[in-house]
Amino acid sequence: MPRTVEPRTAKAPKRDAERTKKEILAAAMTEFAEYGDTGARIDRIAERAGSNKAMIYSYFGNKEELYAVVLREAYLQIREGERKLDLAKLDPKSAIVELLRFTAYHFRDNPWFLRLLNTENQRRGQTIRQLDGLAELNSPLVEFLREILLRGEKSGVFRKGVDPVEIYLSIASLFYFPLSNTYTLSIVFDPDIGSDAWLEKRIRQAEDMILKYLIAD
Predict the structure, then answer these.
(1) Which fold has domain 74-214?
(2) Hey, what CATH class is 16-61 in?
(3) Is the pTM of this model over 0.85?
(4) Where is 208: in which H helix or E strand?
(5) Which of 10, 25, 26, 202 has the fewest CB atoms within 10 Å, i.e. is most exposed?
(6) Quick one: pLDDT at residue 25?
């Protein structure tokens, strides 16, 4: 009697742990940006990521711990984008303009980032002050801005003694306010706030303001 061969049962593919973590993190970034820290729900994050709550708790811990990871990731992404600009290759004026343009588009194209900052400010910096290594994460930005300003100063293009932190705050504020208040400002003042045309116009205005301050008399 011939032997019956049982059909082979296909093994379920193993989940790629790193990919799963990235999918959960991306879903969590969207969730926290939309609902804030108090309104965010782990079950919605799991659904967005095609995962489950047990896996989220296993990888990230509780909701507060996941929020901290999301906040760190937000800063990692903008700092990594700034690093890729390779501003050391540019002359000082061009480097400032390039950083300014990057900041404008990063804020506009990643509204979740601005919402996360708003959430953390409403929490009075409760989580960000506890993040390990945050100073080290942000220090490269300050240092390469300092280097740009020093090069400009030595070449006689920029005025002396400009604080790199103050310059960054000025650049960021020129875009943070209108882009984090797009809905209300669009109704009250300009329906095109956030559009490509509006952003390019705003960038030109910001370039003019920042460079007029920086350029030596």
Answers:
(1) Tetracycline Repressor; domain 2 (1.10.357)
(2) mainly alpha
(3) yes
(4) helix 196-214
(5) 10
(6) 95
CA angle 79, 74, 118 (to 5 degrees): 120
Specify the 3-state DSSP secondary structure of 28: helix
Q: Measure the CA–CA gap between 118 and 30, rounded to whole angstroms.
A: 14
Whole-number Å distance between alpha carbons of 145 and 171? 12
Distance separating alpha carbons of residues 176 and 3, to the nearest angstrom: 73
The percent of the chain in helix, strand and coil, each rounded to the nearest 5, is 75, 0, 25
pLDDT tens digit sequence for 182-195: 999 999 998 899 99
* Residue 31 · residue 70 · CB < 8 Å: no
Mean pLDDT of 165-188: 96
* Token reading at 69: 């990871």
Q: What is the C-alpha end-to-end distance of the chain, expressed in Å?
A: 101
pLDDT band with cut points at 50, 70 and 90 for residue 7: very low
Helix (H, G, I), strand (E, B) or coil at 32: helix
Range(s) within the chain of domains with CATH label 1.10.357.10 = 74-214
* Single-letter amino acid code for the residue at 150: L
For range 122-151, the mean pLDDT: 90
Per-residue confidence (pLDDT) for residue 15, from 0 to 100? 56
> Distance of alpha carbon 64 from its chain centroid, rounded?
19
